[in-house]
Amino acid sequence: MTFLYRFDVVQLDDVLTTTTAPSAWAASGRARALVHLHTNATEPVAFDHEPFSSGLVPPGIVTPPAGGAWVFTPEALSHDELRFDSEAQAGDLTVELPLMHQIAQLFAEDTAGYKVFVTLARVVPTDPLPRTLWTGQVQSASFTESRCSLTASHLLSVIKRPGLTRKHPRNCGHSLYDERTCGVKPSALAPDGLYFAYREDGWLTATADGGSVVTVTGAENRPDGFFDDGFLIVDGWYSMPVSGVDSFLPRGEVGAKLPDPFSAVNGGYRRSIATHKGATVELLLPLPASLLLRKEPLRVTLFAGCDSLPATCKAHFNNYPRFGGYPLIPIENVFATGIKKPRIVS
């Protein structure tokens, strides 16, 4: 039986929480294809139009392959048995593929900033279009000496997961730099326009503790703790929104006022920052081993963090009107202590 496998690789913007088409992939020289099309048949299976798509990929993210033909190339892929009762449709699917496949390497190296979707279809000789059997999102990967096993959750399972709910904590619940809630621009300029207000570009010069502690030239330009609870991006791609001019700008290389706005950093490896002191930055998760083996200098961009307190929002980011917390909520539980009645003095 002939099956078709479609893998959609979608990159999430590394600064904001929106999904963006990674146009910088092609310009980087290290681009990974956005769509991988394979079949378990011994010969390629071709269509002159897109035969099916993943239900989880946002419209406009995936572009047609070069030449406009959708060709499913032979590959040593397999999957476990499909069951079609209602309970099984909310379960998982396991897809096995060669260890050196590009999708397998995504999970072997690092998956931060990527979402991978898989769609399975079957070719029916009497039908001009393949029949889609299963679609979902890859959640994890496991490896043997020669194979990679991807575990994916079905579309129904993903949709049925509880969504976000609005809470009313004393501290701010917004994600810093989220354009829909917080609103602070990650590459905003300082008031004098000579450099970034919350961003510092530099170079990765040393690592320790297996990549959990890094030395970044440029981090010492900010006070200790400036990048606490923030994050850094290593080996990202930098481009201006229109001109395409390289916009990686360590402080010493800026000779005049910067143009506004700057684009976000595309791609790269993102890690959350635990502590920052001088040029030393401690990460919550280590950098991938494959990155530490590279000999050439690595570009790094650090972004300031926020402790979600109203004083920080007001003094550091000048963003108090969009503060998402409720600091004036009483601490005392009146349901436990009761409401104190005013004392009447005769």
Write the layout of secondary structure elements.
Layout: E1 3-11, H1 24-28, E2 35-39, E3 45-47, E4 70-74, E5 78-79, H2 86-89, E6 92-98, H3 102-109, E7 114-122, E8 131-143, E9 147-154, H4 155-159, E10 199-208, E11 213-217, E12 231-234, E13 269-277, E14 280-283, H5 289-292, E15 298-303, H6 310-315, H7 334-337
Parallel strand pairs: 2-4
Antiparallel strand pairs: 1-2, 1-7, 3-4, 5-6, 6-9, 7-8, 8-9, 10-11, 10-15, 11-14, 12-13, 12-15, 13-14
Outline type: globular
Low-confidence stretches are 14-33
Largest sheet: 9 strands, mixed
Give the SSE order as H and E letters.
Answer: EHEEEEHEHEEEHEEEEEHEHH
Distance between the termini: 95 Å
Helix vs. strand class: mainly beta
Strand order of the largest sheet: 3-4-2-1-7-8-9-6-5
Describe this entry's structure for a reader:
It is a single chain. The protein folds into 2 domains: 3-159, no CATH class; 199-322, no CATH class. 10% of the residues lie in helices and 29% in strands. It is built from 7 helices and 15 strands. The strands form 2 sheets. The protein has a 9-stranded mixed sheet with strand order 3-4-2-1-7-8-9-6-5. The longest helix is centred in the N-terminal third of the chain and has 8 residues, at 102-109.
